[in-house]
Design goal:
The protein has nine helices and 18 strands. With about 350 residues, it is an alpha+beta fold. It folds into two domains: about 5-130, Creatine Amidinohydrolase, Chain A, domain 1 (3-Layer(aba) Sandwich), CATH 3.40.350.10; about 130-360, Creatine Amidinohydrolase (Alpha-Beta Complex).
Length: about 350
């Protein structure tokens, strides 16, 4: 059964008449087509008819690989109003599911055509499908994770020069290595030294890395359509007892989070398992973000490992486990793996050394 057919089944179950999906990853997930984020509208319109419609700018149509039994291509010209075309395809739809990443300009204009319609979020329709990865998707995540591991191994082996280089230079080096290892795109390469590591999403800049400080490296990219994401810390020189003690806490917390990610557990229980160890060690105020996020075609997607998320983990759910400890103005540390929940237990996509590797 095609993914669009499964979407249609879920629409039927939720009494939704139509789903409209524009830029974002729902579109390639369902059609294989990655739309350029242009001011020209691209829109997949799914109704209860047997074939969906992909409304696409005529000049972009040659980029679409057709699957005639799944969707038909509806090209529009420069002098046409594509929103009116979408409105006609919707017919008399009363409840319309809208993709989260649709540009507001298109939705606002569409509301003028379908004044009696009710709009709901399409994530409630497509989201559960995208969360539960199939075997091919898990294999893609595994390959991307292994490629990121190889770069992390180079970092831990001292093959990436740190001392005397700027964070930005090291970030560029890591990015180049991700591409060398098979990634198609680098999504991010955080390099944060010393006190900068206390900022979880620090932007690598002109600060020069010095001897005797921690260096946090969080990087990932997209490989064959699926993402990697890994964080490892190294210490250049000899770490203090306070650093090594804190890292031991972090290490234990991350392992507990991974262990908790079993089928049937709640997402918030993964967060609680990691957070409890950090709280008990007295660092609770310095763990300032959720324990993890889902991953797949996007680096951040459902499900999220955070307090209050009572969603039950299912087989195929893929997510990060990445607790951190951040002391403002001093240092920070984070340890991250991507994990896939299976009926046999959590399986990590990252297996490179989890310890605080010391480089001299």
């Amino acid at each position: 059964m095609s993914r669009i057919s499964r979407v249609r089944q879920e629409m039927q179950r939720r009494s939704i008449d139509a789903a409209i999906l524009s830029v974002g990853h729902d579109l390639p997930y369902l059609t294989g087509y990655y739309a350029m984020p242009l001011e020209r509208l691209t829109m997949l319109v799914v109704t209860h008819e047997s074939v969906a419609a992909l409304v696409v700018p005529r000049l972009e149509a040659p980029r679409v690989t057709p699957f005639d039994d799944v969707f038909r291509i509806v090209p529009w010209g420069e002098t046409e109003n594509p929103v009116s075309i979408v409105a006609k395809l919707l017919g008399g739809a009363k409840t319309i599911a809208v993709g989260d990443q649709m540009w507001a300009r298109f939705l606002v204009e569409l509301m003028g055509f379908v004044t009696s319609a009710k709009f709901v979020r399409a994530v409630d329709v497509v989201g559960p499908m995208r969360m539960a990865k199939d075997a091919n998707e898990i294999e893609a995540l595994c390959l991307a994770g292994a490629a990121a591991d190889r770069v992390a191994m180079q970092l831990q082996a001292g093959e990436i020069d740190l001392v005397g280089r700027t964070e930005a230079q090291v970030s560029a080096d890591i990015s180049a290595r991700l591409l060398e290892q098979g990634h198609d795109v680098v999504n991010f390469a955080i390099v944060a030294a010393g006190e900068n590591a206390a900022s979880p999403h620090h932007h690598a800049g002109p600060r020069v890395i010095q001897q005797n400080e921690i260096v946090l490296c969080d990087f990932g990219g997209t490989m064959n359509g699926y993402c990697s994401d890994i964080t490892r810390c190294v210490f250049v020189g000899e770490p203090s007892r306070k650093i090594t003690s804190a890292y031991s806490v972090l290490h234990a917390a991350q392992a507990a989070g991974v262990k908790a990610g079993v089928v049937g557990a709640t997402c918030e229980s993964v967060d609680a398992a990691a957070r409890r160890i950090i709280d008990d060690a007295g660092f609770g105020d310095f763990f300032i973000h959720r324990t993890g996020h889902g991953i797949g075609m996007e680096a951040h997607e459902d499900p999220y490992m955070v307090s209050g998320n009572k969603l039950t983990i299912a087989a195929g759910h893929a997510f990060s486990v990445e607790p951190g400890i951040y002391l403002p103005g001093k240092w920070g540390m984070r340890l991250e793996d991507i994990v896939v929940a299976t009926d046999a237990g959590p399986v990590s996509m990252n297996n490179v050394d989890h310890s605080l590797v010391i480089l001299n």
